Amino acid sequence: MAKKISSILNILLIIIAMLSFLVLLGVFYNLFVKSIYPTKYEELVTKYSSEYNVEPELVYSIIKAESNFKENVESRAGAIGLMQIMPQTFYWLQTCMGEDYISEEYLNDPEINIRYGTYLIKLLKQKYSSDILVICAYNAGMGVVDRWLNEPGISIDGQTLNYIPYGETERYLERVIKNREIYTNLYFKK
Hints:
Layout: H1 2-36, H2 42-51, H3 56-66, H4 87-96, H5 110-127, H6 131-140, H7 142-150, H8 167-188
């Protein structure tokens, strides 16, 4: 009888050890994924996503895809900062916001970059009927997306895209959607 109780206790201890290991593994995995998908600049993203009524997970997803949270980066095309804003777009956004012009060098400032990038997303969301179009326009530009919507081979209804003609924009869209799904699951699941 004592042997039987000892065996049962050993089995229970093994089960408890395995469950503890699985819980720890889950915790470490979650921490690892969060290190790859951080919420850096949380105060700024929260502030401007709230102010401009843009989902913070979309802002984080775009920052992740554009710069991987590196502040002082410039693309080959000349886009600057965390959200990779083109200087011409920056000047246009300043006009839209009724603000005095400041130099494009300020785009290296995380607050300026996140503020204007989030405002751009707001404008794109007001213009387009879907986040797919918003994300494509963020990458390729509104003029390009408008052209696509007006081409019958690319858009049958002028509201949705049958396909994305630019491979770079298609890959960008896929990255942002994947990032958004991960950010939603990690931080914004309701």
